[in-house]
Amino acid sequence: MSRALNDILEKVCTHNKDFSREDIAITWINYKSENNIVFKGYGSGINNKKMFYPASVVKMVYALATYYWIKKGKLLLSDEIIDAVRKMLFFSSNNATSFLIDLLTGTTSGPCIEGELWEIWKYQRRIINDWLHDLHWQELIGINCCQKTWDDGPFGREKEFYGYENKNRNAMTTDSAARVLEEIMVHIDYQENDLNVRSFLKRNLNKVVLKQDPLNQIEGFLGAGLPESINLWSKAGLMSEVRHDSAWWTNSQSLQTLLVVFCNGEKYSKDTSFLPLISKEVYEFNMRHY
Which of 162, 165, 145 is nearest to 153 (CA)? Predict the structure, then answer.
């Protein structure tokens, strides 16, 4: 898989000479499965421990945190929370994300504040990072998930919290995104009254359906390189400087794939062919070899 991944990246980068592997990170994991039981994965990566601004991929972290806050009794499950998580993941709503971060951390956006109030606010906003640290998942070491996501950018206390030269903005690796997605897909036994995070990541690859939703998180992303017939769960991230995607799909009854690709730079943000080419090559490799 390691040799195959390097060959795939080299092949896909030849389509655009401006692409550089230093700007790209990939985590690719295959999972054997039997009777709906998914076994431990095996895989490979390129720059998979390198920090990137995750854009909306971080919303998977906030959704998982919401699930665990509810399980621990820190939040009460409500129709409003269910709707907010659904909109955050399926439609990538920044408004829903802001609402959920306020619930998770007990903070709110607003004008700059000072003194003890400001110190308390910063302490509370870091609660999600503290929870991630306490999970003791090696893949999460060093990541930062404490900022809201924005259409236009932060203002007031949110902008100040970004720090000098935005040094406190969110940061993740493809390995960390893969570990969070694996948790959502494999390790949670959802019960009837649970917040079913996994269900909000399910995508429809039907081209007619996609045309009805210009913000479908498929076209220009990993899902566009896969056959319409497969089952896919994914969460993309896109802004002026990055194009990312994290995806889980079913190749067959006995093989499932997790693929996370981060691309850093304006040229990737504008390119709609790179991610589909990667997923197409990974899918075809799996079909030939497994």
Answer: 162
> Which CATH number do you get for residue 267?
3.40.710.10
Cα 157 to Cα 121: distance, rounded to the nearest angstrom: 9
Q: What are phi and psi of 30, to 5 degrees?
A: -105, 145
The pair of structure tokens assigned to 110 is: 């607003």
Tally the residues of the chain: 290
pLDDT in tens, 222-255: 999 999 999 999 999 999 999 999 999 998 888 9
Q: Which domain holds residue 197?
A: 2-289
User: pTM score, two decimals?
Assistant: 0.96
**Number of compact structural domains in the chain:** 1
Contact 262, 52 (CB under 8 A): yes
Residues 25 and 50 sit within 8 Å (Cβ to Cβ): yes
Question: Please, which contacts does 160-165 make with residues 24 or more away whose CB atoms are closer than 8 Å?
Answer: 160/112, 161/122, 161/125
